[in-house]
Design brief:
Layout: H1 6-11, H2 14-25, E1 37-41, E2 44-47, E3 52-55, H3 58-61, H4 70-82, H5 93-106, E4 112-117, H6 120-132, E5 138-142, H7 151-156, H8 160-163, E6 173-176, H9 181-187, E7 192-197, E8 200-201, E9 207-208, H10 211-223, E10 227-231, E11 255-258, E12 269-274, H11 294-309, H12 312-328, E13 333-339, E14 342-347, H13 352-361, E15 364-365, E16 367-370, E17 373-376, H14 384-400
The structure holds pyridoxal-5'-phosphate (PLP).
Length: 405
């Protein structure tokens, strides 16, 4: 909004005034914000004008326990009162306990070690450096992959629009079609340091790798002495109804990267090295000031406990199935994908941005991952009543967006 007079300023909504201030102060890397939010509770958020929305995006697969969950708020508050930050010269009980719990939950009984950091891209940076310590440099990634925006993570991300403005990026990376075992087999050789796969490609619109593909990738990498690195930053920590999206395949990788939902919205990332990969990084090879911070790790422990105590893996499975079945019932939806509460769909018309806008008008937050692709990633606590209410509103949202039959 542009305001040229005091009158115009005084009639602007509170949201509009914040958006104008945002434009004048925050770097324009994301375009204008759709909403200015000031509070949340459960799956609902409120904007600065008091309008409420049901959050079926969950901070892009981050708000595992929704908003203002008492267990998470309590854990952060208690840890901040006790000890907020220390340097990496020292350890803290929540840091050690979280590393142990992550290995127990995700490592399938394999010996492992965890490096803590602050985001998904940073977790992938750590993993990238691990691959360099093998003495090999070649990495095979997947077409349509998204691994983050730092220079190293970007080097693995396939989308030209993200990569090209920053080239040259670290090299020796090539991409094979997602799910194509023959192409992977042809690409991996004795020079390959690692194969990196998202078991579920979230940013690409929720593409799910088959168990056979992950198992094949495990065999191929093992045969060539290459690392298998699973990026579970979006798909991990219960979102798909299991602790890792790759768990149903039975595959034990060498590296797992986690972030997003791990601490339910408190910034954290983790890079797990399993088996021999656990010792690839040695003292002096890597570091970060905030990694393993007591508050972030206490938050993650609270999230893990709430998932266990409140049966949220089962809830994610049941609510995701319910959402997918309901969305698929509309003929204007041509395909529904995903696992648990990471749901993607393709529309019969390329009107995904219009559907996002119509949903927002109707009080629902969802996300477009392409011209005809939508993503839903509600908190793991989402209820049947909330799913059913979205499904009841769905036909009129598609009507309002002009998605014809
Ligand atoms: N890897 C995957 C699979 C992701 O989905 C994302 C973020 O969307 C990232 C890495 C980067 O994470 P962050 O945005 O926390 O750096």
């Amino acid at each position: 909004m542009t305001t040229t007079s005091n009158t115009a300023t005084s009639t602007a909504s509170t949201s509009e005034r914040w958006i104008e201030r945002y434009a004048g102060a925050v770097m324009n890397t994301f375009g204008p914000p759709k909403l200015v939010l000031e509070r949340g509770e459960g799956c609902r958020v409120w904007d600065v004008d008091g309008r409420s929305y049901v959050d079926f995006l969950g901070g892009i697969a981050v708000n595992t326990l929704g908003h203002a969950h008492p267990a998470l708020v309590g854990a952060v508050h208690a840890q901040m009162l006790r000890l907020g930050h220390i340097s990496n010269f020292f350890a803290s009980p929540p840091q050690v306990e979280l590393a142990e719990r992550l290995l127990a939950l995700t490592a399938c009984g394999t010996d492992g070690r965890v490096f803590f950091c602050n985001s998904g891209a940073e977790a992938n940076e750590a993993a990238f450096k691990m691959t360099r310590r093998t003495g090999r440099t070649r990495i095979i990634a997947m077409e349509d992959a998204f691994h983050g925006r730092t220079i190293g993570a970007l080097a693995l991300t396939s989308k030209p629009a993200y990569r090209e403005p920053f080239e040259p990026l670290p090299g020796d990376v090539s991409w094979v079609p997602y799910g194509d075992l023959a192409a992977l087999e042809a690409a991996v050789d004795e020079y390959t340091a690692a194969v990196v796969i998202e078991p579920l490609q979230g940013e690409a619109g929720v593409n799910v790798a088959s168990a056979e593909f992950l198992q094949g990738a495990r065999s191929i990498t093992a045969a060539h002495g290459a690392l298998l690195w699973l990026d579970e930053i979006q798909s991990g920590m219960g979102r798909t109804g299991t602790w890792l999206a790759s768990h149903p395949s039975g595959v034990v990788p060498d590296i797992v990267t986690l972030a997003k939902g791990l601490a339910g919205g408190v910034p954290i990332g983790a890079c797990l090295g399993l088996g021999e990969a656990a010792t690839l990084l040695q003292p002096g090879n890597h570091g970060t000031t905030f990694g393993g911070n007591p508050v972030a790790t206490a938050a993650a422990l609270a999230v893990i406990s709430a998932i266990e105590d409140d049966g949220l893996l089962a809830n994610a499975t049941a609510m995701g199935d319910r959402l997918r079945a309901g969305l698929a019932a509309d003929a204007r939806v041509t395909e529904v994908r995903g696992c648990g509460v990471l749901v993607g769909l393709t529309l019969a018309a390329a009107r995904a941005p219009e559907v996002v806008a119509a949903a927002l008008d109707a009080g629902w937050i969802i996300n477009a991952t392409g011209p005809d692709r939508l993503r839903f990633a509600p908190p793991l606590i989402v209820s049947a009543a909330e799913v059913d209410a979205l499904l009841a509103a769905w036909p009129s949202i598609l009507d309002a967006a002009g998605v014809g039959a």
